[in-house]
Amino acid sequence: MLKGRVLHYFAEGNTARGYANLYETNLQDLQKLLILKGGSKACKSRLLKKTGLHYEKEGYSLHYIHCPMNHEHIAGIIIEELQIGVLDSKGIQRLDSKIAHKKKLYINLDHQYALDDQKEYVVQLASKIMKLKQEAYLLYEKALHIHDEWEAIFIDNMDFEKANALTEEMIQQLYGEPVSTGKGKVKRRFLGAATPAGAVDYVPSLTDGLAKRYFIKGRPGSGKSTMLKKIAIEAEIRGFDVEIYHCGLDPHSLDMVIVRELGFAIFDSTAPHEYFPMRVGDEVVDVYAACIAPGTDEDYEGDIVHIKERYQEKIKKGTEVLQSARQAEDELEMLYEQNGDSNREAVIVEKILCFIEEGRNITRT
Q1: How many CB atoms lie within 10 A of CB 49?
Q2: How many CA atoms lie within 13 A of 250 on its CB side?
Q3: pLDDT tens figures, 184-235
Q4: Where, if anywhere, are coiled coils annotated (predicted)?
Q5: By the number of CB atoms within 10 A of the CB, which of 134, 150, 268, 365 ranks highest?
Q6: Is 155 exposed, middle or buried (0-12, 13-18, 19+ CB in 10 A)?
């Protein structure tokens, strides 16, 4: 049996612009949704992992959508060929109007927990978690403002004609003359996220199996995101399906573009998701060398060191606050786990599988 493609990514983010949600475009092709309500994130993650593994073994292509507050937890799975998603309700609660037309089944997990005598404490913990997250977002916002200072140095020393020429060269190299017969669907995601464990990314998973990987090297403000935006727009114009991966700190910026039909990924390969060529088909695109005035690093070395230190300090503090939020979440999770009925999980998995099998039978006919 052929092995399906397995992708890992985030659809939510703890960002400098607050909580960011990119679920919508990833649900557009799905015909059926099974939505898990209530209960602990840990329980839902176990259910999702077991379900995903079942269909991985059958050779289906799976998407594992990770939780940014605990990247080891799964917040949703998508089974491509069956056009079915199984999702934690919290990630899509703001999308009710967008998914109203889809066939849905809700499974409420709260009934398997006995927390009636601890409701007040649960509310207190939830409030504490929210306040800590907001504090982290403000710290990331301050970090982004400092990052703007960093970018300004290189923007002021950029040759924009060379930057535009390099982008046009890359567009020609990536696309050539081909035009797809499709309509060009866009999927927006995060390749990584700011988590309590620091920055986490899934670049290796997302780029696995692609013939060409382009590693953009440069500095803040050297035009990496602008290049990626133009490359993404070109995919849409030519009718190709395109995966657009936004920056986990600033969702207004892009970190990666993938066009699987043409077998390529091009991504910002600088910290905190820095990678280097390691296989045939890997290629570096150095925008600093191509577009920035020689000697800029050396001329502004003192300023850059100071800005970098201030930036990293805010990121570090933001991560520490997220860790405190995670500790409160873990405490809340423990309440659910201690008062739960683990024997019911096997029953719920069977219910999920029955829902999916019903969809698979419809797909086959």
Answers
A1: 15
A2: 14
A3: 899 999 999 999 999 999 999 999 999 999 999 999 999 999 999 999 999 9
A4: 308-345
A5: 268
A6: middle
Please return the burial class of 105, using the count of CB atoms within 10 Å of its CB with bins 0-12, 13-18 and 19+: middle
Least confident segment among 208-212, 250-254, 345-349: 345-349
* Mean pLDDT of all residues in 323-336: 94
User: Sign of the CA dihedral 13, 17, 22, 23?
Assistant: positive
Angle CA 248–132–44, to nearest 5 = 70
Q: What is the pLDDT of residues 89-103, one digit of tens each?
A: 999 988 877 787 788
**Residue 11: both structure tokens together:** 């659809």
159-173 in b/e form (b: 16+ CB < 10 A) is: eeeebeebbeebbee
Output the six-digit token pair for 37.
């309500």
Q: Residue 346 corresponds to which amino acid? A: A
Total residues belonging to the chain:
365
Taking each helix axis as running N to C, give the angle between helix 301-338 and helix 119-155, from 0 to 180 degrees, rounded to the nearest 10: 160
Q: Tell me: pLDDT of 345 over 70.
A: yes
Provide the residue type at 284 as one letter.
V
Two tokens, residue 83: 């056009």
Please choose, from the candidates 230, 227, 228, 232, the residue with its C-alpha nearest in 3D space to the C-alpha of residue 243.
232
pLDDT at 365 over 70: no
Residues facing 84 on adjacent strands: 32, 79
Helix (H) or strand (E) holding 113: none
Number of CB atoms found within 10 A of residue 121's CB: 13
Three-state SS annotation for 205-255: HHHCCCCEEEEEECCCCCCHHHHHHHHHHHHHHCCCCEEEEECCCCCCCEE
